[in-house]
UniProtKB/TrEMBL annotation:
CDD domains: ABC_MJ0796_LolCDE_FtsE
Origin superkingdom: Bacteria
Domain ABC transporter: 12-240
GO function term, MF aspect, one: ATP binding
Record's protein name: ABC transporter ATP-binding protein
Source organism (scientific name): Actinomadura rudentiformis
One Gene Ontology cellular component: plasma membrane
Annotated Pfam families: ABC_tran
Stored InterPro entries: AAA+_ATPase (IPR003593), ABC_transporter-like_ATP-bd (IPR003439), ABC_transporter-like_CS (IPR017871), ABC_transpr_LolD-like (IPR015854), MacB-like_ATP-bd (IPR017911), P-loop_NTPase (IPR027417)
């Protein structure tokens, strides 16, 4: 595939990615491409390499060997400053612990990634994103005045405000009640279906993984199984044989 076609078909491609920490090899030669608009869940037992996988795929960390291409750009060849810029402009992150800035209101938190890259918010897109996450009447509130579910919805809006190619979500529902978890997963599903974002979700929860198009199972730093069109039951059945 030509570089241009590659950049069009896949938002992220990992080729033989290995990440070692001293004598511990957390990822072993993982190859995987994430098609545009696809929603993939990554599961695996504790210590199987899920966080390392997400950090390498998103350019937060660099592989010890192998390569990661984001939109056709080999991020291993970028300087630290360019990698940071690429992450800021083309990738959205959602974490378990929300990571909102307490002193900023909801609107300031949501638009922060734009301000960091010196861009202005497009008022129509801001209104659309805020409407999607149901926080239109909460824009002047501080994070401490919101429920956990509302805070995570603000974090999803912050991840979407730059219209990123990829959204990486690391246990985004780990701290939420089931209803708020469904809301957040529904927003990620919508980002893939309606605006063509590529979503990569790391989770321990079979119910959460079932929102994805496919589930990758990691064990000892390798992809050992993949499940298409998952349901909570089929995810659990796979989980049990890991
Ligand atoms: N900074 C680090 N230094 C040394 N070892 C590390 C480091 N980060 C991860 N590891 C090791 O790499 C392996 C994979 O860790 P990782 O955090 O990716 O797993 P995980 O599947 O995300 O685990 P969990 O579900 O418990 O968060 C583990 O053996 C871990 O101890």
């Amino acid at each position: 595939m030509s570089q241009a076609a590659e950049a069009t078909a896949y938002a992220v491609r990992m080729e033989e990615v290995t990440r070692s920490y001293g004598s511990v090899t957390a990822l072993r030669g993982v190859s995987r491409a994430f098609p545009r608009g696809g929603f993939t869940a990554v599961m695996g037992p504790s210590g199987s390499g899920k966080s390392t996988f997400l950090h390498c795929a998103s350019g937060l960390d660099r592989p010890t060997s192998g390569s990661v291409l984001i939109g056709g750009t080999d991020i291993g060849r970028l300087s630290e400053a360019k990698r940071t810029r690429l992450r800021r402009e083309r990738i959205g992150f959602v974490f378990q612990s929300f990571n909102l800035i307490p002193s900023m209101d909801v609107e300031q938190n949501i638009t922060l990634p734009l301000h960091l890259s010196g861009a202005r918010a497009d008022p129509r897109w801001l209104a659309e994103v805020v409407g999607r996450v149901g926080l239109t009447d909460r824009l002047r509130h501080r994070p401490s005045e919101l429920s956990g579910g509302q805070q995570q919805r603000a974090a999803v809006a912050r991840a979407l405000i730059t219209r990123p190619e990829v959204v990486f979500a690391d246990e985004p529902t780990g701290a939420l009640d089931p209803r708020s978890a469904r809301d957040v997963l529904g927003l990620l599903r919508e980002a893939a279906d309606q605006t063509g974002q590529t979503v990569v979700l790391v989770t321990h929860d079979p119910m959460a993984a079932a929102w994805a198009d496919s589930v990758l199972f990691l064990r000892d730093g390798e992809i050992v199984a993949e499940l298409a069109d998952p349901t909570p039951t089929t995810v659990m059945a796979h989980w049990e044989i890991l």
